[in-house]
């Protein structure tokens, strides 16, 4: 859509000069000869930018500016003034004008100022549209736009009101704990507690005590009776993060709770009943953990009633602009900064980075940029050096007509694997084939090269 520029000046010659300049730059130009006519045009078809003379009979440019900002708060205003009245232009900028130009007007100066004002207006509109989309689409604090995440959230809506155990898998930083919170908040158990336990954070003896509680004297330092996470989460949800890091002994006790809903505290004999929904998570491949004897197969099948695989951020890059603006708003407020946007160049750098730390890394990067920004926009030089200097590998391939299909397949699989850092499961998902096909093709290529 062509940006509209409203030119307000009581001298017809000035309006005609500006129209010739701006039409040549591709803008749609509207006229007004006085303040009242300008306000009428603002209400009829709001422009992106208004250029107004300060000295006009009746309503002057400063009065028009104040009235116009009340009608169209996002309007960018450029005031035109003579050399002798620069003080008036400064006053207009204090009232919210974007910039000013001095008469006699120079084409280069007008074009530059209007371009900048249009750019700012478009950025504000884009930010508003993204915030509105965020309000419509994001459940709680889960930010997404991609069809991949939409499908995952829809599946979570389907399972939220059940008692089925859920296994969430995905790389570190993809939002597994956030998704667990969302499932709990969408379930009938939302009025009771969501209790979280990081199974990798504690040694075996303390982990068992944390989960099931202990009696006084059960071990050195156990001075009194203590409730475990299962008791605290009764009638609610227990989220077991990094579940593959549990010892085999603790896994056996957890399996019993899942089967019978019963457990004993460490050092105790009384059997307790619990009604808890389990959501487990791991950043490892559960099948690989089973083969390495770090996860019991029978426990896995109890936990893996519903499997949710969260994709890495590099596989849903369309979510990066939405996440970035969400984090800008959050960390600008938290760090007392007035940053309210990001330049296209900086956003492009974020969108092409491969994000080994996923959403958590993105949030840390944005917070750093907010703190380091010297104005109200994050720029490329506010980003970490490795992201500033990163050059994305080509995301498209081309082949001469007549290229053998086997060669096209080989190049496509190889390029996709490079794009996802060798993750065969993700590459297979993107290509619509099975992981087994990729392994088989790689074996064939090795045999052929040998």
User: CATH homologous superfamily name of the largest domain?
Assistant: P-loop containing nucleotide triphosphate hydrolases
The secondary-structure class comes to alpha/beta
- The total count of strands amounts to 14
Please state the CA-atom Rg, rounded to the nearest Å. Answer: 30 Å
N/C terminus separation: 58 Å
Strand order of the largest sheet: 2-1-3-4-5
CATH topology of the largest domain: Rossmann fold
Number of helices: 19
Helix content: 40-55%
The percentage of residues in β strands lies in 5-15%
Categorize the overall geometry.
elongated
Can you offer a commentary on this structure?
The chain is α/β, with parallel strands linked by helices. The protein folds into four domains: 4-134, 3-Layer(aba) Sandwich (Rossmann fold); 147-309, Rossmann fold, CATH 3.40.50; 314-388, Helicase, Ruva Protein, domain 3; 405-449, Homeodomain-like (Arc Repressor Mutant, subunit A, Orthogonal Bundle). Helix content is 48%, strand content 14%. It has 19 helices and 14 strands. The protein has helices at 12-24, 35-44, 61-71, 86-94, 107-137, 147-159, 176-185, 204-212, 229-232, 248-260, 286-291, 297-303, 320-334, 344-352, 358-372, 385-388, 405-419, 424-431, 435-449, and strands spanning 4-8, 28-32, 49-53, 76-82, 99-103, 166-169, 194-198, 237-241, 262-264, 271-273, 277-282, 306-309, 341-342, 377-378. The chain has a five-stranded parallel β-sheet, with helices on both faces. α5 (107-137) packs across α13 (320-334), α13 packs across α15 (358-372) and α18 (424-431) packs across α19. The longest helix is centred in the first third of the chain and has 31 residues, at 107-137. The chain is elongated, with a radius of gyration of 30 Å. The two termini are 58 Å apart. The relative contact order is 0.07. The model is unreliable at 134-138 (pLDDT under 50).
């Amino acid at each position: 859509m062509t940006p509209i520029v409203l030119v307000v000046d009581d001298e017809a010659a000035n309006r005609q000069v500006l129209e010739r300049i701006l039409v040549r730059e591709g803008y749609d130009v509207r006229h007004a000869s006085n303040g009242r006519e300008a306000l009428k045009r603002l209400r009829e078809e709001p422009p992106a930018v208004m250029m107004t003379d300060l000295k006009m009979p009746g309503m002057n440019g400063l009065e028009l500016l104040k009235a116009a900002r009340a009608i169209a708060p996002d309007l960018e205003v450029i005031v035109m003034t003579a050399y002798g009245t620069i003080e008036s232009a400064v006053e207009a900028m204090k009232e919210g004008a974007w910039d000013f130009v001095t008469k006699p007007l120079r084409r280069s100066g007008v074009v530059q100022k209007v371009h900048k004002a249009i750019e700012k207006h478009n950025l504000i509109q884009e930010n508003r549209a993204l915030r509105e989309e965020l309000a419509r689409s994001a459940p709680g604090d889960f930010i997404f736009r991609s069809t991949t995440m939409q499908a995952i959230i829809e599946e979570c809506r389907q399972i939220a009101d059940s008692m089925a155990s859920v296994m969430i898998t995905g790389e570190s930083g993809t939002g597994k704990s956030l998704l667990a919170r969302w499932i709990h908040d969408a379930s009938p158990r939302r009025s009771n507690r969501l209790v979280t336990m990081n199974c990798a954070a504690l040694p075996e003896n303390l982990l068992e005590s944390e989960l099931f509680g202990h009696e006084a004297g059960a071990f050195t330092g156990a001075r009194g009776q203590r409730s475990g996470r299962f008791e605290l989460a009764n009638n609610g949800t227990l989220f077991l993060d990094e579940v593959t890091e549990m010892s085999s002994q603790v896994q056996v006790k957890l399996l019993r709770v899942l089967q019978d809903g019963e457990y004993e505290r460490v050092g105790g004999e009384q059997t307790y009943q619990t009604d808890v929904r389990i959501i487990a998570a791991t950043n490892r491949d559960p099948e690989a953990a089973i083969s390495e004897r770090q996860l019991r197969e029978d426990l896995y099948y109890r936990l893996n009633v519903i499997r949710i695989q969260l994709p890495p951020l590099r596989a849903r890059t369309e979510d990066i602009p939405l996440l970035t603006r969400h984090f800008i708003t959050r960390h600008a407020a938290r760090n007392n900064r007035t940053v309210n946007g990001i330049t296209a160049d900086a956003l492009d750098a974020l969108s092409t980075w491969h994000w080994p730390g996923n959403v958590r890394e993105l949030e840390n990067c944005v917070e750093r940029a907010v703190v380091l920004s010297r104005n109200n926009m994050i720029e490329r030089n506010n980003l970490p050096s490795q992201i500033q200097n990163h050059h994305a590998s080509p995301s498209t391939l081309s082949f001469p007509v007549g290229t053998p299909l086997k060669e096209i397949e080989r190049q496509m699989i190889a390029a996709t694997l490079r794009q996802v850092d060798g993750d065969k499961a993700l590459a297979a998902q993107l290509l619509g084939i099975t992981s087994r096909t990729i392994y088989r093709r790689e074996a064939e290529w090795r045999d052929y090269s040998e």
